[in-house]
Write a structure and sequence with these properties.
This protein is of the alpha+beta class. It has 10 helices and 13 strands. It has a 6-stranded mixed sheet with strand order 5-4-7-8-2-9.
Length: about 350
Amino acid sequence: MKKTFHIIVLIIALCINSKMIYASQTVSQHILTLHYPPDKTVMEYGLLGISMSMPRDSADLIIVMVNNERKAGIAVSGMFACFTVPIEIGVNKIEVTAEKKGRLADTVSLMVFRRSELIGEHKDPPPGFNRNYFHAEKHPECSACHRLEPGKYDKTPAEIDPSADNSSENAEPVSSSSCYSCHRKMTSYPFVHNPAAAWKCLGCHDPEAKPVYSVDKPDTKMCFQCHSRQKEIWDKKKYFHGPFIVGKCVICHNPHASENTYELVRPLWLLCISCHSDKGSGRHIIGGYVNKKDHPTHGVPDPFNKGAELSCASCHAAHASDSPKLWAFEAENVFDLCRKCHAK
């Protein structure tokens, strides 16, 4: 009986050991080759493009985990896998696993840092993290499927005025853009900036710049080429919002697309308190005037704008004003501002 037991234990141990050897041999082969991004890359926006290759028929499924959450599952039919995953502000731990018929084939891990002008602790990357500009290097492995140089569509100027009629039957589809095949997820949001919607990327990104395709700074140098009417209005004001003064439009606005109106990088109230955290309670509105502790700053209807939610922009101009407090409605004093909603 004991002999039989020992034989069973030995068989189980051999099976477990063989599986471990198989898994070790499979992973040690490192069938996955990561082409982009390199480990410890710094990113600006919330979508990360990943490009990988593997020997043909070595994997049939790619699983992507970001900070221990599954973000993608990609069926593999060839030698390349290119995909986009969302990333959060701060350090992101990314694990890419290849499987073949349900068995582990290989795993590749990397770290990516998404910086933010809004959140102080994430403005500068941790030691060892660096920017990497994909288009600054040659990528022959990509050229079989992608055109990496601007084409005719990209070089043709477009009317990006939102009031213009661009519905010509002879107009080329936006997929004609060289940028579209890799970056198409960038515009998969409800609110899309007009140049991005038209995929006229060279309107902002300079192919002759160093690094290539970078954008002129400060942002206002580029943005006011189209938003000249707003500039004319705001320049006549006496007082200006900080980001406007330093010309950093992208602190508040995503230049491509967003889930929020005006392509804001966060919902309006959250965006404002990212910098003005002490104003969220609303105590600054009524302190010393009435016997209430606070005044709502969000989460209730805006009495002056039907259908809108109350927010900081209900009372303050986001760019410029003739009031030192950036009051809206050209209010001359605080009581004039309050009477816009509280008429009685």
